[in-house]
Structure formats: C-alpha cells, structure tokens
Amino acid sequence: MQFLIMTLFAAGIVAADQFTKYLTVANIALYQDVEFIPGFLGLTYVQNTGAAFSSFEGQQWLFALIFTIFTLLILLEYFKKSMGFTKFERWCIAAIYGGGLGNMIDRVRFGYVVDMIETKFMEFPVFNVADCFITCGCIAMLISLIFFNKDFWKEEKK
C-alpha cells in the first residue's frame, strides 16, 4: 500500500511538472523573459540539453543510465531488501524520482529539458518544477539521514 501511495505522489509531481512545461512552451517564446514577481522571480523558456549548470551537455545516455539504476534501486528497496529508510525518507525518494521522471520524459520527447523558473535576486541557472522536487527531496533526505536516522549508518541492519 505504501508503494502505491508513493507512486501516486511521484505521478502527481510528474503531472505538475509536465503541465508547467506545457504552459511554458505554449505561452512563452524561447529565451523570452516574463516578469513574475518583479526583482525576485521571472519566467524564461530555456531548452537545457545538460544537467545542473548545463553540465554533461548532450550526454542523454548518461541521464538515462542513472535514471534506470535509480529505478532499479527503488524497486529493490520496496520489494526485496529494505535499506533502512524511514517513511519520511521514502517520501523524499518519491519526490526525487518524480522530478527525475519529469525531466526524463522531456529528454526522451525533445532531447532537452524545458526550464522556465529564473531567480532575479541572484545569479542562478534557469530551472523547472521537477528540479525543485529533486533538490528539496535530496536536501530533506540528507538532513534526515545525517541527523535523525542513525540506524541507517549501522553495519548490521534488521
């Protein structure tokens, strides 16, 4: 049952991500800058063929490989061997996976990822909803693993 709930959560993230990307492509020209919250946040349609900060540009096979391995590890965690994650950490994994799937859909469909959120108050690459879930999921999971789930780091697990 928990796997189903996490799957639906990840699917909701994918739906939100794909919907915002659809709205961006349908309403904003490539590289057009639209003020959203003046001086704070803007919308700029960018086609990103790489990862964060355009690293690994054009390496679509690498992203597909990493995503496939991540998928297999999740299935192993839920159906074969528990790796000692808490319920909260599983929510984090679902957020990371949903974001990763949203970006992978773009890579397969277009050969690039649609990015649109631009910070105006600091110099930072344009990103999307999926990136937000990936980043927040990773940060929350690391905090949980470092400060709250001491059993995860023990050699012998139940």
Features:
158 residues; alpha+beta; 4 helices; 3 strands
Write up this protein.
This protein has one domain. The chain is built from four helices and three strands. It is of the alpha+beta class and 158 residues long. Strands 1-2-3 form a three-stranded antiparallel sheet.
Question: What is this structure, in a nutshell?
Answer:
By secondary structure, the protein is of the alpha+beta class. It is built from four helices and three strands.
Write the layout of secondary structure elements.
Blueprint: H1 2-27, E1 33-37, E2 41-48, H2 60-79, H3 87-110, E3 113-119, H4 129-148
Antiparallel strand pairs: 1-2, 2-3
Helix pairs in contact: 1-3, 2-3, 3-4
Poorly predicted parts: none
Order of strands in the sheet with the most strands?
Answer: 1-2-3
**Proportion of β residues?**
5-15%
Question: For the terminal residues, how far apart are their CA atoms?
Answer: 21 Å
Largest sheet: 3 strands, antiparallel
Query: Overall 3D geometry?
Result: globular
Note the total helix count: 4
Mean pLDDT: 90
Q: Please indicate the count of domains.
A: 1
Number of strands: 3
Provide the gyration radius in Å: 17 Å
Element string (H = helix, E = strand): HEEHHEH
